[in-house]
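Lab meeting, action items carried over

1. Structure of the three-component assembly. Owner: GW. Status: complete.
Input record:
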Amino acid sequence: MLEERKFSKNGMNLKARSHIEMTVHCRLSRDFFIRDVLQVAPELIGKILVIRSKGNSIQRYMITETEAYRGAEDKACHASKGRTERTEVMYHEGGKIYVYFVYGMYWMLNFVAGEKNIPQAALIRGIEGFHGPGKLTKAICIDKSFYGEDLVTSNRIWVEDAELKVTVKTSTRIGINYAGETWKNKPWRFFICPQTP
DNA sequence: GTTAAGATTCCG
DNA sequence: GGAATCTTAACG
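Predicted assembly:
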């Protein structure tokens, strides 16, 4: 986990550095999420996903890869099929969690972005140690019970700003070839540059 | 009620 | 390249 790696970098005593961690990390507020998903998704890279495990311990993982799904007109966005029971939370204000099940075995974790009634979400595709949207949800036990959870107020999942400086690269989104030329070619996948200066 | 397809991953 | 595996949404 992040703290362990940071702690091993120099010889300061653990108590003092633990205090530094506590003051630097700050939960992201509603304001971060209610912006356009094309701002939110890339800025999530380098932020810290915090989750309380079933044993009640807090775990932190840096977010390394995201994708933006933007509005009803985006043919790759589930909301392009309309407002349904599944997509309902995407129409809520930013900061909520959208979780859905695919391929008979994987839960996908998304953070809702944008203003109320504008369906946008950022798919979390990778976190430190777990590359792949299906793998990470399995690793941190994300399931349907997280649907609609609020990252701003929840006591079991939220996002913190570590104020890390990272370089973000882009590419086209994965697994949406059905969406047509206009939408499948949007450079809306964001990932951390492996050799950030 | 039935059915087709999917914001994936693993194996060959 | 193909299977695993099941919810969602569209259709009858």
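2. GW to write a short summary for the group page. Key points so far: The first strand of chain A starts at residue 26 and ends at 27. Residues 67, 69, 76-78, 100, 102-106, 108, 110, 121, 123, 125, 132-135, 173-176, 178-179 of chain A lie near DNA strand B (CB under 10 Å from a C1').
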